[in-house]
Amino acid sequence: MSKTVVISIEADRVKVVVAKKSGRTVKVVDYFTMDAGELDEFLEKDESREYVVVSEFIQYHQDSVYIPNVKPKYCEDMIRNEVRRLHPELEAFSLVYFDLGEKVEGRKTVEEYYTLSFAKSEVDNIISKFIDKKKKVKAIYADFLVPINFMAAIEATKALDEPYLLVFAAGNNKVTLLMQSNRLLFARSSQALNYGTSEFDLQSISMTLSHCHQTLRINPAFVTIAGTMTTDFDVETIPPFQVAGIIKPRFCEMDDIAFTEYFLGVSALCVELRKKDGIKMDVTASDYRTFLLLARYLTYSSLAFIVLSLMTLAYIGKTAMEVSGLRGQIAGLRASNTDLQSISDRFNAIKTPILAKTKLIDALHRHKDEAWPSDLLIPLSEVETKNLNIESLNWDKPAGKKSKGAVFTIGGHVEAIQSYAEKEAVMGELQNSLKQIKGIKNMHYDLNIRDNSFRLVFEFIKPPGLSENAYPSEEKKK
After folding, report:
1. pTM of the model
2. What is the pLDDT of residue 363?
3. What distance in Å separates the CA atoms of residue 52 and residue 272, rounded to the nearest whole number?
4. Measured between alpha carbons, how far is 95 from 84 in angstroms, rounded to an integer?
5. What's the rounded Cα separation, in Å, for the pair 335 and 358?
6. 158 versus 172: which is more confidently predicted?
7. Mean predicted confidence (pLDDT) in 421-435
8. How far apart are CA 222 and CA 151, in angstroms?
9. What is the mean pLDDT of the chain?
10. Cα–Cα distance, 252 to 272 (Å, whole number)
11. What residues have CB less than 8 Å from 273, skipping those under 6 apart?
C-alpha cells in the first residue's frame, strides 16, 4: 500500500493527514494539528521525503474565457493566451480550468471555460519552504478547489446533473462553490466569523443563491455543507432552501469526527485517488514538475546502470571460466581427431542442397490434409440466405497448430426487420442451413442490433474422403 502525507496549511494552523491507498480505498493511519510556526521543525524531523500540500492562495483570478472548438491538446495554450490578454500583469501563472460546454457568441459557436489563475511567485514560495528542508512537493492544491474531486468521488453525486452549492470552511474563510456535473461554475470566499454554521452563514448562502438566480441565471437545487460546518449547526431559523451535510464516505477509513476536522486533507487524498479520471488540480509550475521527473529518471537510471554493471561483471566472470574449460576440451579433440575438418567439409557440401529442398517438402507435407476454402465453396453456395446480405467470407488457420481444420468468418447485414426476434430467427435459419454441411462445428455468431450487421464464425474440418476428389490429378482429369 502506497503512503501519502498531506499537509494542509489553514491560516495559523497546519493539519497533517497520513494515509495509505489500496486500490480505490483510503485508510487514514494518522492525523494531527500543529501551529504554522512548527512546520519547519516538523519537516526536519519527519522521515517522509514527499508531500501533498493544500494551501490558501491570497491572490488569484477567476474568469470565463471563450475559445473556438479545437483539439484538446491545443485547449490549454489557447486558454492561457486569453488569460494573459485579460491579466497582462500575470507574467507566469498556474492554471486550473473547467469546460462549461458550447455557447453561441454572435454568429459563432465557441467553447466556454471557467478558469482560475494563480501567480507562479506565490506557488514558488510554498515550494521553497520544502526545498529548504530537502523535501519534495508531489502536488499543491488550492484549499477551495480540493473538495471538487471529493464530491466527484462519492457515490451520491456520480449521476447528479443538477447544479448545487457546496459550502465549507477553509482556514479563516468560508468557501461557497457552485457546481454541476463535477464542474466548478463559480467560487466565492468570505471571512469566517464563527465556527460551524450560524445564522450569518445562512444569510450569506441566501445572498449567493440570489446572485446565482439573478446574475448567472442558474437555480441551484440544494445546498451541501461539509467539514466543520456540519459539527456545530447553531441555527434556529429554518433555512429557506434544502440543506444536506457530507458524511464520511465508505472508501475513506478514519474516525467520523476527525473526518470533519481534516476535510481538506482528506479531499486532497481523493484528488490523488482520482488522478486518472479526475480534474487537473495541481498548481505546481511546469518547470518544477519537469525537474522532479528528470530527477526521478536519473535516480532510476543510476540504479539500473549499477545493477546491470554488476550483472555484466558476474556474467563475464562466469563466461571466462566456461571458455577456459572449453578451450582445453577443444584442444584435446583437435589432437585426437586430425581428419575432423575434412569430414565437416564433406558434410556441409552434402547438407546445403538438402536443406534447400527440405523447407518446401515440410510445407507441402504439413498442409496436405488441411481444409481449404475451395472445399467449402460448393456446399456453401446452397446455404439459405433469405433476408441476409452476405458481404464477406474470410478464411484463417485455427489457433491450435495441430488442428487440420480452418476457421471461416461470414460477415454481412440482416435486411431491415423491425423485430429483434425475427432477426434472431433469420440467423437461426442460417445456422441450421450451415449445420447440414459435413465438417462444420463450433459455430457462433454476433448480431449488432444497431446497424443489423452480423458476424458468424465456424470451424471447418475436411470430411474423410474429400481430399481424393478436391484436387484431381492430371490422369483422372483425362
Report:
1. 0.60
2. 65
3. 9
4. 11
5. 35
6. 172
7. 85
8. 14
9. 82
10. 13
11. 21, 24, 26, 153, 251
